[in-house]
Design a protein that fits this description.
Helix content is 49%, strand content 10%. With 116 residues, the protein is mainly α. It has a single domain, classed as Arc Repressor Mutant, subunit A (Orthogonal Bundle), CATH 1.10.10.10. Keywords: DNA-binding, Transcription, Transcription regulation.
Length: 116
């Protein structure tokens, strides 16, 4: 992960609603959530949610998959882990701080598309 990608991801997460949406999707796991489920859970109007989901997708932190008539959104765990890895790669100036090699979440194996 390069610095430009990191800045884009952090900028996407630097909004309280987008951070809530992303954390909701992380908690949802590989199953993901539909926009109506997210909106209901967080009390966000669907029009605002759509904007925030597009921002998270543009930062590659969220993926979208159409299943029948429904869209499912999922956290991109591989991107999340890459971001965390970038932020902590020089943790404790290279000395063992007990966290080396820890992967927060396994990458998802579901096929996803980046449709808008």
């Amino acid at each position: 992960m390069n610095q430009e990608h990191v800045v884009k991801a952090l900028a996407a997460l630097a909004h309280s609603v987008r951070l809530q949406v992303f954390r909701t999707l992380v908690a949802a796991g590989a199953e993901g959530r539909t926009p109506s489920e997210i909106a209901e859970q967080l009390g966000i109007p669907s029009t605002a949610l759509s904007f925030h989901l597009k921002e998270l997708m543009a930062a590659d932190l969220v993926s979208q998959e159409r299943v029948g008539r429904n869209l499912f959104y999922r956290a991109a765990y591989d991107e999340m882990n890459a971001l965390l890895g970038y932020l902590t790669e020089n943790c404790c100036a290279g000395s063992n701080c007990g966290q080396a090699g820890v992967v927060c979440c396994p990458p998802t194996t579901k096929s996803t598309s980046q449709e808008s």
